[in-house]
Amino acid sequence: MTSFKTLPDYAPEKYHDFSIPENRAAMEKAIAKIRSGFGKKYANIINGKETGAEKYFASVNPGKSSEIIGHFPLATADQAVEAVESAWKAFQTWSKTTPEHRAELLLTAARLMKERRHEFSAMMILEAGKNFAEAEADTAEAIDFMEFYAREALRYAQPSELYQMPGEKDEMFYLPMGVIVVIPPWNFPCAILTGMTVAALVTGNTVVLKPASDTPAIGHMVAELLYEAGFPKAVLNFVSGSGGTIGDTLVAHPKTRMIAFTGSLDVGLRINELASKVQPGQIWLKRIVAELGGKDAIIVNKDADLESAAQGIVASAFGFQGQKCSACSRAIIHRDVYDQVLNRVVELTSKLTVGDAATNPNMGPVSSERAMKTILQYIETGRKEGRLVFGGNRVSEDGYYLAPTIIADVKPDAVIAQEEIFGPVLAVIKAENFDHALEIANGTKYGLTGAVYSADPQILQRAKDEFFVGNLYLNRKCTGAMVGSHPFGGFNMSGTDSKAGGKDYLLLFLQAKSVATKL
Ligand code: NAD
Q1: Which fold is adopted by the domain 41-160+171-292+497-518?
Q2: Band (245; pLDDT cuts 50, 70, 90)
């Protein structure tokens, strides 16, 4: 039996080097295998059964509009209700299973994903446009979440340390909550979807999972893997469909106990508002974990290692086409080194390759036509708000490929310096000094990630004290949070600071019961 004490310590997954021909060939083989299964009709899993729908929608390769990944049911509001009600029924027995049993299932799932990691990555290369390294980082993070939360569930099952009142035995237990609606984004379609889902399941809750509409196939792969690992179908409902149609139903249902959401600010605010309204028959206040957008900044002070700073900016701004909540969308540079850093950033950016993710370029396509149009509109705004120094255009007829785009001399209050663009667009802003740089960095409604490059320990200490973000990085890029090392979640409108991949995370999926027994 798996126990807290006998498990080896958690350690993150290692990555492959895809410049080595045999590693590249292994990924190409996985891509071919995943491609060979394209075009099929998928089913939802509701109340433990495969369930179709009257209407279906297609998931399409964003890099090749003729390539259909698969057809997914557009679930109806009635089916969403059935999913919540059957999850509530399943909760009555699942909540009584032991944490050891659930952790064992999760470790089995982690093992299965390790065995097939390239297949999960291949699906993301084709469905989300990630290059090999970005896709593998996503799969590895999903595995890390499973390994980490399995151990954490066992830790929360240990007796709590309490002051023992004389003449009493005092105890506290952590109980599951109920039905948790899990709504992930498309940009980490394996890691975030897996992390939120397994955090709910391993703590004894049942789940209604609605995958993002742009990436249902990878979500379906994860659900199938969890069933194969032994999680009963009844405890994990998989319901694809339009967020607008079934999202409200899932969130508002009186038997929904909690919503674990990661996505945009607008949708997060809507969920927050709807979930706060008590529905007829509802007997609890719904809990919400909402991890939202960012407008993340890298500050380069005049004493920084400028080469390292320029490399960090380019990696953070254009990795996965800038479609990370942690992406650097503002480079705030001290005036004394502004031109030098800007020139080097442009030079490094000019070397980036853009193309079909299956050929492993630096950058693949953006997620959808809708996303591409929005990003191009922001670029138009940016042309007026600053000086376009690189990119600014679409680079192909088919597929949603955009050039990495750099707009210099942007004012701190410009639209492109305030709103989340969620694409490969970097606004470069000049700061008079470090105080000014901090003021600019803190001057948006968000507070997710940030980085400061400086050789001065006092400057770095000031960043620790005054840069108001949930995840701060010093002398390194602002993307690439690791489970167990960089618990992740933001301040202000970036969300509820839930700290995914940290030791407090599972507590959000549990409720504590205190028991005092008179001796
Ligand atoms: P989105 O808000 O458009 O969609 C997120 C999910 O919500 C999807 O599954 C979508 O189908 C669903 N949805 C849409 N309308 C809904 C409704 N009315 N009710 C319920 N669900 C609904 O976000 P996205 O485009 O998928 O993801 C990008 C956003 O996610 C960016 O803003 C990014 O910063 C953010 N993000 C944040 C984090 C973080 O940890 N803070 C991590 C990744 C992404």
Answers
A1: Aldehyde Dehydrogenase; Chain A, domain 1 (3.40.605)
A2: confident
